[in-house]
Amino acid sequence: MHQRPIGTATRGTTNPNRLRRMDRWIAATHGPALRRSDSPVAVDLGYGAAPWTAVELLERLRAAEPRTAVVGVEIDPARVAAAQPYEREGLTFVHGGFEIPTTGQALIRAANVLRQYDEGEVTAVWERLCARLAPGGLLVEGTCDEIGRRHVWVALGPEGPRTVTFATRLGSLQRPSDLAERLPKALIHRNVPGEPVHAFLRDLDRAWATASPYASLGARQRWIAAARAVSADWPLTDGVRRWRQGEITVRWSALRPATG
Prior knowledge:
By secondary structure, the protein is α/β, with parallel strands linked by helices. It folds into two domains: 20-167, Vaccinia Virus protein VP39 (Rossmann fold), CATH 3.40.50.150; 190-248, no CATH class. The protein is built from nine helices and eight strands. It has an eight-stranded mixed beta sheet. Helix 1 (20-36) packs across helix 2 and helix 6 crosses helix 7. It is an enzyme of class 2 (transferase). It comes from Streptomyces glycanivorans. Its EC number is 2.1.-.-. InterPro entries: SAM-dependent_MTases_sf.
């Protein structure tokens, strides 16, 4: 008996290059795992009304591992039908939801999918998606603005959440806490005093302000100085190579919600 896909349709908003920051991070940090995989299949879950994000994901991941295949999964059958003319070798589109109608994924990317759900639903969705990963697989779930200037995502393995990455176009950044509006659903309501994510963004803002003399060398050097400063108190998992891209990644254990 055919089962109804699990979940509800997103607004479907998408723009070319919207997810480039997330894609580049995935290719850089998860590329070795893709190369080790016997079947490097990536799922673009909830790609929206147009197939651009899946097309771009294939291109960027194939730069890291040429064998990579991408499956776009959408709960709206009309969106699947509209995307299928874009199929080619290594790129397919199928009807489905959180149950993921394929198995053993090396990667699942869910961008701007959970924002319409309640915070209390997130853990169950994460667990369901992580159960569809191959050993060594990765789930990346997060939110960005309409043109991809600000983006925050959680990376999860089969065992659960590992890290949180904040990524921004540095030339448009006033202060790091501006990224708070793009926190994923698991954290967006936790940006209040007493919660770790609030403390982290507060400390990053302070480090950004202290690093203002570096602004004469450019926003990139200022960001690197701020990241280096917060690394003394927060467990960052990356370094200058990623900081130069306008990123900073923190262990999930340090930002995990404190209450509720």
